[in-house]
Each structure stands twice: as C-alpha cells, then as structure tokens.
Amino acid sequence: MTTIVQKYGGSSVADPDKIRLVAKAVARRQAEGCQLVVVVSAMGKTTDELLARAKALSKNPPRRELDMLLSAGERISSALLAIALADQGVEAASLTGSQCGIITNDRHVDARIIEVRPVRIQDELERGRVVIVAGFQGMSYRRDVTTLGRGGSDTTAVALAAALGADACEIYSDVDGVLSADPRLVPEAQKIDFIGYPEMQELACAGAKVLNAQAVEFAKRAQIALYARQTGNASFGTLVRLDPPPPSGGVRGIAHRERMLVLRCAPAAVTTVFELLDSHAGAANFVAWIGGATAQSGQVELWCVRDNIHGEGEFLRQLTARSAGIQVVDGSGAVSLIGEGIMDDGQHLRQALQALTDAKLTPQGLTTSSFRISILLPSSEVTTAVKLLHDRFISSAPITVSSEMV
C-alpha cells in the first residue's frame, strides 16, 4: 500500500471550518487506498500568541519551559483534526512527537532530529488508522520535550517520511507551490514546477518560507520527493526532486530577509562570537552568510538572521562584554538571487549590482556561492530591490521547461 506523509501549515488549520476541509481531503485520500501520516502545525497565530504570553511574564523565558509551552499548539491541532476525522467515520490517532519516536539532541527551541523510531506510527497504520502527528516537536535523549525551530513541522514531516520509507511527502500551505518571489511583494511571481534540492535549500536559507531548509536537507539525504502544494487546490504544485529538468534561464527565484544583524569582528574573535551565537540560537540557524576579512579593515562580517534569536538583548550584552572591538550593525536586510551555476561567468552579479545602483539603492555587502548571490541592503530598500530584481531577471525572461524534459 502506498504510504504518503502530508503536512498542513497553520493557515490550513486556522479554525474549525478549515480543519473540516482538511479532514475531508484526508478522508478522500485514504479512500483511494493510501496509508496516511498527517503532520500539522499550530492553528493560525497560536505559536506567536503563546510566545507573547511568555514574554509578558519574562523578558528571557527559560528555553526548556518555552518548549513545553509552544509544543502545546501542535498538540491541539492534531487532536482537533483527529476529532474531525472521527466525525466523518475515519479512524484516526493523534500522536505527539515523542510518541512518534522523534529523538532530538538536548537543545531547546532549535533542536535537531538525531533519530526516528516510528514503531507506534507503524502499529497505528497497520490498524487502518490515519496517524495525525503534532509537528515541530520531539523528545531529547534526556526525555525532555524539544521543539525544532521555525518551520519545524516541515522537518517533522520529511523525517517521518524518511523513517517510514514513504512514497512521497506533501507539504500544504496557503500558496500554490514554490514561487519565484514572495507574492506579497511581487504579485506576478511565477510558480516553479520543478526544482532540485540544492536550489530549494538555498532559497529556504535565503528567506523563502514555503519549505524549511532542514526539511529539504532531510529529503535530499533520503532522496524523498517533496511536493509543495496549496491546501484545497488540485493543481500539481512544485516538485522538489534529485534530478529536475534543467531550466532555460539562470535565476530560479528571488528570496529576501528584512531583519538581519551584521557583526563585524577580527578573525580571532570569530570563535567567541560563534560560542555566544550557539548558546542563544544555534549558530547553524543564526548565521546566514560569512564575508571574508578585507585587507582594508581586517574584519570578518557575519550576516545573522534575527528571527530565531532567543534573548537578543542578553546576547548583545554578553557579546560586548566578552569581545572588545565587535561592531554591531542594525537595520540591514538581504536580497538573494538563486539559480544553479549563477556565478559561472559573473554576468548575473554585474547585472544585479548595476540594476540596484541605477535605481539609487545602496548595496552594503556581498556574498556568493555556485547557487546564490546575496546582497546586503538597508532594510528599508529590500522590498524595492526584490521587485526590481524579479522584474529584471524573471518577469522579463521567464524560465520555461521543455515538455520532453519532464
């Protein structure tokens, strides 16, 4: 029997009516003969509301207690979906991350999965039940509840798909697949039908929110097909796979981050900075890109993502106390062009910088890889830059895929 893992985001289960719609879709899929494991996020803005309650009591809540609090949101969603399925005559069992056998390291707020033991899920599937899993959470080897950071429900879904040997993993959200830019900034953003793991991972790391970067990493390792689809939409969506058909153009998408913190320090201070980063957010989740030391300044630049920082004020206080001479630059954002071989000849870099300077925007820094060009800008210029670069590289030269390549 075909085994499918589905994940529904917070907007898809935001209220009882939407939960009923998800339940109907799940019931139809099971009736087609599939074994289904359904991972759910917290309803709507529940996670933000719970976090706000914690911050109302303490400026720096203990991370362990945050995990106990925030993981409740996904448990509520999973139980409600199981209830909605039961009302339609479908047997379902809601399980927490720990009941599913998701074992993590002992970090709180941004744990990483180290092992999955899906015995309980397999037992429930053999009984003919749909398994509803509370996403975003697991259990450390010390038996504490842990959470997986922003977008962690995606990671839950892909990790379970890998452990179960699922035929596919379907990620449902409020957009119809992976788009060439954030549709809130670029209404004419184009859907990408097929994309490879490396490009998708770069897009996610650079700020695209449809798929979580760690989830793509899991999928790549296990070679699981990922489908990004819109809840309630019967269209194909986007397929993320090992060998996608090659596109005809160089830039697949434009991603952005509006809230970056730039740290400039001497190379000798980088170790100290990373130790503090790791204790406050996990360096892997926090540092987006690293710029090399320049001959003029002798400093290394760390471009840091602020969304996952736990206790930013305390982090900055410890930073200045332990390392003299570190410069903290606030008010920055980043725009990234993503595409395989994007730096093969330097043409895209030259054209991007020329377009920005012609529009009187002010690039402040630059990093590149074989799949990415990232440009640091003032936060106030990010929206304009995204629209400008999308028009220059994508709207004016849309990427097409030959039908015989699919």
Descriptive labels:
406 residues; 8-stranded mixed β-sheet; 18 strands; single chain; 2 domains; alpha/beta; VC0802-like; Carbamate kinase; 36% helix
Description:
- With 406 residues, the protein is an alpha/beta fold.
- It folds into 2 domains: 3-174, Acetylglutamate kinase-like (Carbamate kinase), CATH 3.40.1160.10; 253-395, VC0802-like.
- Helix content is 36%, strand content 25%.
- The chain is built from 12 helices and 18 strands.
- It has helices at residues 16-31, 46-57, 63-87, 119-126, 152-164, 197-205, 213-222, 270-280, 283-286, 312-322, 347-358, 382-395, and strands spanning 3-8, 35-40, 92-95, 102-104, 113-116, 130-134, 137-140, 145-147, 168-173, 194-196, 226-230, 238-241, 253-265, 287-291, 300-305, 327-338, 365-368, 372-378.
- The strands form 3 sheets. An 8-stranded mixed β-sheet has the order 3-6-2-1-9-11-12-10, sandwiched between helices. It has a 6-stranded antiparallel β-sheet with strand order 14-15-13-16-18-17.
